[in-house]
Amino acid sequence: MNKIIAVWGNPNSGKTSLSIKLALALSKMKKNVILIHADQATPVISTIYPLKATKDQSLGSLLSAVQITQDEILKKCITHDKNDYLSLMSYLHGENERTYAKYGKENVVDFFILLKHLADHIIIDCSSNVTTDVLSRTALELSDQVIRLITPDLKSVSYFDSTLPLIAERKLNLQNHIRVISKVKPDMPKDAVSNKFGGIQRELTFSEEIERQYYEGLLFEALIDKKSEAYIQSLMSLTDAIIGEDNGELNKDTKKKALVKLWKRGDKNNG
Ligand SMILES: Nc1ncnc2c1ncn2[C@@H]1O[C@H](COP(=O)(O)OP(=O)(O)OP(=O)(O)O)[C@@H](O)[C@H]1O
Ligand SMILES: [Mg+2]
Fold this sequence. Notes:
By secondary structure, the protein is α/β, with parallel strands linked by helices.
């Protein structure tokens, strides 16, 4: 039942934030999760976990190795100090696409095969640049599920109109993406953008608390603001889509406990 989930979307649409919240939700349900940040132009780890020591643990050095092994993957996994179920992989601060030798799709395929043996869920925080970023492009092709984030604005329309034709190959199964409209504020033209992309399956509202957590490097913390409730509900519905609502092992109690850990008000609102 191990699954690879790719989170992709237009630039600045909330991919990294959602990947973290999804990884947290699944880990609070006692699922082992490896969260992979593909971005090499702006290495993510120092922006989301600023004080963590990450020496010699670059995703880039792993992917450009002649042979990728489970052992090497485990060595590059950056553990989360407060969460035994969660590991992170990322390019490191100051690195860029020239820091390591170029690697091809074969390396990424090997990486994915090995990853499936190492965790219950692998979440790939893709970069928006799927034409040159072979890790993100391969994630779109080989993931069990792709979550596509779309912000309701003209810039996202411009991005998708330029990028979708470049990835229109049948093997990428674009029609199977879960299309999510993201960072929605009340007066945004969400219906117009939704219609443009053939309908939207989920909505993630704009949350000032997430924005604050992002600026403070605290996205791994629980949300506590009452106004984050709509975001949390969409997040839980996305986790259902990932693990399957009828997953026998995961009873309502486990999910409720996870909800309370993710959203500190969950206990008040769920009896
Ligand atoms: N649901 C949300 N509500 C409010 N702000 C959000 C939400 N999700 C993300 N943001 C904000 O949007 C900005 C971009 O977020 P994030 O880095 O997660 O997006 P991204 O798609 O990964 O960006 P990039 O294309 O640079 O990788 C940040 O300021 C973040 O706080
Ligand atoms: Mg990002």
